[in-house]
Amino acid sequence: MRKKFFGIICFLYLGMIYFLWFSGSLKNYLAPNMQVYLKLSTILFFLLGVSSFCGRKEKHSIVWSDLILILPLVMLFLAGNGKLSMDFAQNRSSNIQEVEIVEPEEVPVEEEITYDFSNPDFEIVDANFLDVATYFTFPKALEQYEGKTIVVRGFVLEQTKLPKGYFALGRYVITCCAADAEYVGFMAKYDTSKIKPNEWYEIRGVLEQATTSSGTKILSIKVVELESITEEEQYVYPCYSYGDGKCSETKKYQFQY
């Protein structure tokens, strides 16, 4: 009886993996480069399940401790499609720090500057999102990219860490599995009364330098154009997870670490 119980559990796990795989929900639990290991495990679950129903009969009965094997199945059922609540980002933001930004002195200009966002210097896509957002926190980025144009899409982080007139726009990043999911984003300057927390936007703007109250130089986005968009892919991953081992979407910017 106990052997057949383990066989049933193996087939249930097998069904769970196939359901996540073919429903497209597996990406909400594992980074693409980690999914291959789970998919290969289906072979093992199948063989173990079949072997549990073969061979001689055993009289071992099920014990209470065996029921713990059902727990992951129950947790998956309760998790639904695996998407994290946007409110979760408040406690798991990695590169958005509590700062008090000192505004740079305004430089008078004779005429209003216009920007062409049809070919921005930085077009942020899923495959380079993490790398660019992380690099913008490096001092070297300030020297290289101040004044460059950028287009990025994401959802607004609901928090009180940033001063009035600034907000964070980002995505959840998974490097291995959903347990290490973090909110990674870009700091942006705009009239925050015109945006809503947890809503998705595309922002088009210019990279500018700002200074925190502690004297740290940071790179933020001065928003020139903002557009509300429908929800896109909630998760992004390290560049190598997208099947391009050379991370071409990131390397084209020639970052100098």
Summary of the model, kept short:
With 257 residues, the chain is α/β, with parallel strands linked by helices. The chain contains six helices and eight strands.
Kindly describe this structure.
- The protein is elongated.
- It has two domains: 2-79, no CATH class; 86-251, OB fold (Dihydrolipoamide Acetyltransferase, E2P).
- A hairpin with a 4-residue loop joins strand 6 and strand 7 (217-228).
- 28% of the residues lie in helices and 21% in strands.
- The termini are far apart.
- It has a five-stranded mixed β-barrel.
- It is of the alpha/beta class.
- The longest helix is centred in the N-terminal third of the chain and has 22 residues, at 2-23.
Q: What coarse outline follows from CA principal-axis ratios? A: elongated
Class by alpha and beta content: alpha/beta
Strand order of the largest sheet: 3-4-5-7-6
- Fraction of residues in helices? 25-40%
**How many domains?**
2
CATH topology of the largest domain: OB fold (Dihydrolipoamide Acetyltransferase, E2P)
CATH class of the largest domain: Mainly Beta
Poorly predicted regions? none
Q: Provide the β-strand percentage band.
A: 15-25%
Q: How confident is the prediction overall: mean pLDDT?
A: 83
Rg over CA atoms: 24 Å
Q: What is the terminal-to-terminal distance?
A: 60 Å
What is the chain-wise order of helices and strands? HHHEEHHEEEEEEH
The CATH architecture designation of the largest domain is Beta Barrel
Q: Main attributes?
A:
single chain, 257 residues, alpha/beta, OB fold (Dihydrolipoamide Acetyltransferase, E2P), 2 domains, five-stranded mixed β-barrel, 6 helices, 8 strands, 28% helix, elongated
